[in-house]
Amino acid sequence: MSERTNPLIIQGGMGVGISHWGLARAVSARGQLGVVSGTALDNVLVRRLQDGDVGGHVRRAMAHFPIPECAERLLKSYFRPEGRDGAPYQQVPMYRQAASKAKQQLTVMAAFVEVWLAREGHDQPVGINLLTKVQMPNLPTLYGAMLAGVGFVLMGAGIPKEIPAVLDAFANHEPARLRFDVEGLQRDEAEYLSFDPRAYWESLPAPLTRPRFLPIVSTDSLATMLARKSNGRVDGFIIEGPTAGGHNAPPRGQLQLNQRGEPVYGPRDEADHARLRELGLPFWLAGGTGSPESLRQALAAGAAGIQVGTLFAYSSDSGMAEPFRQSVLRRSRLGAVDVFTDPLASPTGFPFKVVDLEESLSEADVAAARARVCDLGYLRTPYRRDDGRIDYRCPAEPVDTYLK
Q: What is the pTM of this model?
């Protein structure tokens, strides 16, 4: 597959550390599109360093980062050659609207490392998946991925209509900004997140290749809106149905729950393939499509191919912890896996697929016993205080603190 050829199979960009560089590299090296998860990469990077960087992969990629002093500073701060020896991870500062230069540079480096490693050893494109709702790290993450030569950007969990112009700007190392969703703003007020690549270079390097942009949507109407109203070029769509693992779009219309407490989806939630074809852009079908027959059906419907998540998540190349992988696979072979579409599990407001697994957070008593602490902060909600300042409430913090 070349940079301009459409893959038949796109590997889903599952959660933090699951679709890591090893899985993405394995998929892309075989001619399909491997995708790394771009979520929380700053913490992923420093934790790998604190665990001793087994295999030396992170340091190998950091050696290719075009700003050497950045790599030197991060290694001095976080690299532990012998690992942590049971000590807690050293935390990195949480994101705020006006992130420090050091925080943004760490995120640029982390995205560069993940994409660089996924591209190592082959000449096929790789992609990166970001959540639109996890707003604050997205700009430096995109720039770092582009520095490493990412070929595709996939974004869901929101309406990413501002991203095409960001990619255009970053290709020329120009500043970009995104509207910042802050609760409590007046209709005529707006807040923004910004990132200026020029602040990191003494002299600007050559322009970068602009990656292809594939929003992840659930309906043809949203695809149509993005194709017509985004602030730049959209290169295709991933059409994700309600059976897809991870986050799902809420049902259209008034929310109704079945007897198990799951959202009820109906005909309005099904994408019209004929209308998608009229857009003249490639699209991939996702959600229960992980089979040769589903690929044939997708191609017959006019799709360019399929996106497959769950099968890759449980493959031996993913970053899933082995006990969880083996437990689910064993129960799957017995036909004893129960998957629940939970309308409350995710603080993003999107329904979320949950596997019923013993001694995991899928069990209510285990979740209730977990100490509540906001130490990462990616899903904090910004809000305007009475004094006009912007503050943050975190769904992971103690309930009394959150309510206060």
A: 0.91
